[in-house]
Description:
Blueprint: H1 2-27, H2 32-47, H3 60-73
Amino acid sequence: xxxxxxxxxxxxxxxxxxxxxxxxxxxxxxxxxxxxxxxxxxxxxxxxxxxxxxxxxxxxxxxxxxxxxxxxxx
Length: 74
């Protein structure tokens, strides 16, 4: 009986460890949108305090729409 409980506990530990690792891995997913928004935020910070500001970058959705429009125009 004790051996069975020990096996079950070992299996439970393995399953919970794998579940935790998968959950943590999902936190690190990097998308094109997150990279674009990071660049956009960096540009805003870099341009802060300047008198002659370049036009701000569009949102990712606007960027994607423009990109698709240009692809279809070729």
